[in-house]
Amino acid sequence: MKKVTGIGGIFFKSKDKAALNEWYAKNLGLPVSNYGTVFNWRDADNPDKEASTVWSPFAEDTKYFEPSTKDFMINYRVENLEALVEELKAEGVTITDEIKTYDYGKFVHILDPEGNAIELWEPID
Predict the structure, then answer these.
(1) What InterPro entries does this protein's entry cite (predicted)?
(2) Where are the domains of the chain?
(3) What's phi and psi for 88, nearest 5 deg?
(4) 39: which strand partners?
(5) Is the pLDDT of residue 125 over 80?
(6) Which CATH number fits domain 4-123: 1.10.10.10, 3.30.365.10, 3.10.180.10, 3.40.630.10?
(7) Averaging pLDDT over each range in 1-15, 34-48, 92-106, which range is the top one?
(8) Which end of the chain is more exposed for a tag (fewer CB within 10 A), N or C?
(9) 123 and 8 in contact (C-beta within 8 Å)?
(10) For residue range 18-66, what is the model confidence (pLDDT) as tens digits?
(11) Residues forming beta bridges with residue 105, ordered by sequence position
(12) Are 123 and 75 a contacting pair, CB within 8 Å?
């Protein structure tokens, strides 16, 4: 079974996300919104399939990365999230919440051995 198929997003805490977004827009040309920016790309194995990676600063006091105390979180794109979660449970991986489903995909959060928060996303492309 394929597990991680790419990076879905890079998320990090910021003292002033609006100012940081503005800096990245001005100096690096990122087309930012309140949520950061989205990089669109095509799947190497299926060039007709479009995909995206999100870059997004979060408020410095966000609770979204908890229970991790780190200032960042990586979102990985995966296939078959339910099966992957069962494998991770069997391996003793810390799963911090239940799978949630939205109109753009399914999500769950885990921790690596160093306490880094990881968001797993099965997108609906």
Answers:
(1) Anthracycline_SecMetBiosynth, Glyas_Bleomycin-R_OHBP_Dase, Glyas_Fos-R_dOase_dom, VOC_core
(2) 4-123
(3) -65, -40
(4) 53
(5) no
(6) 3.10.180.10
(7) 92-106
(8) N
(9) yes
(10) 999 999 999 999 999 988 999 999 988 889 988 999 999 999 999 999 9
(11) 102, 123
(12) no
The identity of residue 100, as a single letter, is K
Spatial contact of 45 and 2, defined as CB atoms under 8 Å apart: no
Pick left, alpha or beta for residue 108 (phi over 0 → left; psi -120 to 50 → alpha; otherwise beta).
Answer: beta
Six-digit token string for 12: 């990090």
What do you get for the CA distance between the two ends of the chain, in Å? 19
Structure-token pair, residue 4: 């991680």
- Residue 56: φ, ψ to 5°: -150, 120
CA distance 96 to 73: 14
Q: What pLDDT score was predicted for residue 99?
A: 98
